[in-house]
Please model this.
Amino acid sequence: MTIKLIVRERSYLTRSESLAANSDTTNRKVSLATEGLPYVENWLRNRTSNENALTISEYVLSLRRKTNPSPNYTKMQIRALVDLSEYLNQKPLGRLTSDDVMSFLDKLRKTEDKDPLHKWIGTYNLKREILRQFFTWFNDPNTLYSIFR
Model:
């Protein structure tokens, strides 16, 4: 099975980057995106950069407007994106390459000795799908609804 991820590097200043300097906006969006999930709010505030926290929050808010996800689904989305941000040392999500994303996914692979039942494959596929949905939204925020059809 071939995995194709489309990750574009933006050469212009994104809306997220311009808003990252405004901590009030970031704090408000993080609070709204993690409403009802206080420990998840701590993940965004403490484990990611302000710019990545803002981008993730905008994604979650867009997701909530269009699909009304469950709290657990929202938590899984945020967790995967925070893990990606941490793994790549807070590199801005808008500047990731396909190699960055693939190296993150490859770290989820386990050997036959460590995982004889191949349970890692479910985690790998879940995170891959979450990242696919995120980068589809990131490259064109108007396509979010069509992702879930």
